[in-house]
Specification:
- By secondary structure, the chain is mostly helical.
- The chain has a single domain, classed as Winged helix-like DNA-binding domain superfamily/Winged helix DNA-binding domain (Arc Repressor Mutant, subunit A, Orthogonal Bundle).
- It contains five helices and no strands.
- The longest helix has 18 residues.
- The mean pLDDT is about 85.
């Protein structure tokens, strides 16, 4: 059994670790994904190519260990990444 304060510290460290795994740009892309935007719409919003967004999305999925946008959005909301 873990002491409640130790559990709080562990959760904070875990959350910060996840945030540190994502680049600033990946977090921006994730925020737009959560809004339901397509890769093309995100690319237009961030003034980059759609291919660049696809690369960011792939990295986000890998770093968060998820396989689709819905899982990424849920993870982001549950872990207060957005």
């Amino acid at each position: 059994m873990i002491h409640p304060k130790a559990q709080d510290v562990f959760e904070t460290v875990s959350q910060n670790h996840t945030t540190n795994k994502l680049s600033k740009r990946e977090i921006e892309v994730l925020r737009e994904m959560v809004k339901g935007k397509t890769n093309k719409e995100i690319a237009e919003t961030l003034f980059v190519s759609e291919k660049t967004i696809k690369t960011h999305v792939s990295h986000i999925f890998s770093k968060l260990q998820v396989s689709d946008r819905t899982q990424a959005a849920i993870y982001a909301m549950e872990n207060k990444l957005i």
